[in-house]
Write a structure and sequence with these properties.
This protein has 453 residues and is an alpha/beta fold. The chain contains 21 helices and 13 strands. The strands form four sheets. It has a six-stranded mixed β-sheet with strand order 1-3-2-4-12-7. β5 and β6 form a beta hairpin. α1 runs antiparallel to α4, α10 crosses α11 and α19 runs antiparallel to α21. The longest helix is centred in the C-terminal third of the chain and has 21 residues. It starts with a helix and ends with a helix.
Length: 453
């Protein structure tokens, strides 16, 4: 019965776009990579597992090769082959929902903050609590607290932290040079970003946009302005919001100004910020660490550079103080099907992915930053010729907040993008009153959604 209820709930909760930590805007066609027979023959398996094969589902093709390498290391020790299937974001959740409703599910898969609570509450995920208790390689204190806690429910743990991510500012040096605008620095305020974007947009007569923001991608965009200016999309107890406060309105007014000199949302919706940037149609975007490889492998990557996100000089003292430069962070979890044939084998694979050895290799290969603390420097050096240290400095020199979520995140998250909320402001970026009204409406939308949970 729980599975039927879950299917009805999830069908109304599926996110309409890629949000955070592993979502790639590149075409993620379904792909499969299998270990070679030679790898299996070299294994040191003890023969204690009930299965000789584990299937993994992920949604980001940029991460596939690196994760397969780590899985191959585990195969060499266990003798259990690992098959990784990449499925695009929308179909990923559709297929997982179908499996949760009685169909076939992968053995091991990624879990996301949008849907984790519903899967945990409906006995779909393997309870890892006892396995963790007997595993000396996994210690909760070694992981980012927000990611670990996200995958906990009623005192049980249903996934282990795969990674965490931060946000930085990506810019095209060639465009800045062409329009004689100084490059972004870590001393930039959001006002500085606005002035630079305005100069490029006006200097090109609109042929090149100074910046582009996909308002549907809240984690790498407007969420950060809300927090920089002193408000919270969701309060830390997950029971409220301050998005209608004066502080939030100040942050969203800054967001409105940026959009007013950037790519129109109609253009963003048709083309996407990443494509606009790679095609040289926009000079700046904000983006997450999970997307670095897309730009690192682009044709004109030598022109690209990263800086920390701008800050909000709220107190007007001309320097970035604590709480004025936030980066949202999120984290995926490695989870397993509760009805899997061999839960011990699946847990052992997950444990290896999340062990210090697996996490270090993930960072060194440039797959993603780790879910384990203290290995981000390994990630910084993974992209020869491109300085990506801004993502690490975001947490060392700035402040992090965990991606806002509640029990049914997508209910209010999707509603904020509709008429009567921020859609009105996105479509009228020259109207400050529309943005202020949208913040008031958003306050009620979120409060009503939480009350209904």
């Amino acid at each position: 019965m729980k599975k039927k209820v879950l299917a009805l709930v999830l069908s109304s909760m599926m996110a309409v776009g890629m949000i955070g930590c592993g979502g790639s805007s590149a075409d993620n066609t379904q792909a499969t990579t299998e270990n070679t027979e030679s790898t299996a023959s070299e294994s040191t398996a003890s023969g204690n597992y009930k299965t000789d094969h584990i299937t993994i589902n992920i949604w980001d093709s940029n991460q596939q090769a690196g994760i397969q390498q780590i899985a191959d290391d585990w195969t060499a020790k266990s003798g259990v082959k690992v098959n990784i299937e990449v499925i695009d974001w929308d179909n990923y959740w559709t297929l997982l929902e179908a499996g949760a409703s009685g169909g076939d599910m992968p053995d091991v898969f990624w879990m996301h903050s949008n849907t984790a609570q519903m899967y945990m509450e409906n006995d779909i995920l393997l309870d890892l609590t006892d396995y963790i208790a007997n595993d000396s390689s996994i210690d909760k204190s070694n992981y980012y607290e927000g990611v670990w806690d996200l995958y906990s429910s009623s005192g049980k743990q249903y996934a282990l932290p795969k990674d965490h991510d931060t946000i930085a500012l990506l810019y095209n040096k060639a465009i800045f040079d062409q329009y004689n605008v100084e490059y972004p620095t870590d001393d930039w305020t959001w006002e500085d970003m606005y002035e630079a974007a305005k100069a490029i947009t006006e200097g090109s007569n609109g042929d090149v946009y100074g910046m582009a923001m996909n308002t549907s991608n809240n984690q790498d965009g407007w969420y950060n302005l809300v927090y920089d200016y002193g408000a919270q999309v969701i309060t830390e107890d997950h029971k409220g919001t301050t998005i209608g406060s004066d502080e939030a309105k100040n942050g969203m007014e800054m967001c409105r100004k940026l959009i007013s000199v950037g790519a129109p949302q109609s253009v963003v919706a048709e083309t996407g910020t990443d494509s606009l940037f790679i095609s040289g149609k926009t000079a700046m975007i904000t983006q997450g660490s999970w997307m670095i490889n897309t730009f690192y492998t682009a044709e004109n990557h030598a022109d690209y550079a990263w800086a920390m996100l701008p800050y909000a000089d709220v107190n007007g003292n001309g320097s970035c103080d604590a709480g004025e430069r936030y980066s949202c962070y999120n984290g995926l979890g490695w989870a397993a099907n509760a009805a899997v044939e061999d839960p011990q084998a699946c847990y052992d694979l997950i444990s290896y992915f999340c062990s210090e050895e697996g996490q270090k290799k993930q960072a060194q290969l440039g797959v993603t930053m780790g879910g384990m603390k203290g290995i981000s420097e390994d990630f910084s050096g993974a992209f020869e010729g491109m300085d990506v240290s801004a993502f690490v400095r975001a947490e060392e020199e700035g402040d992090l907040y965990f991606r806002p979520y509640t029990r049914k995140t997508t209910v209010w998250e999707d509603a904020l993008q509709q008429e009567g909320a921020f859609l009105d402001a996105w479509q009228s970026p020259d109207d400050p009153a529309a943005m202020a009204t949208a913040c008031d409406n958003a306050q009620k939308i979120i409060e009503d959604a939480i009350a209904a949970e």
